[in-house]
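Recall from the previous lesson that a structure prediction takes nothing but the amino acid sequence as input. Here we apply that procedure to YnfA/UPF0060 family uncharacterized protein from Actinomycetospora succinea. The sequence below is the only information supplied.
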Amino acid sequence: MVFDSHQPNRLDVIGALICLAGAGVIVYARR
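The prediction returns the following tokens.
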């Protein structure tokens, strides 16, 4: 993701957190 000069929207932050949480759950579930 590229953040230029614009402030990240709340949806962008929530989306990023959901992506990280989803990836973490998948990695944790495969252990």
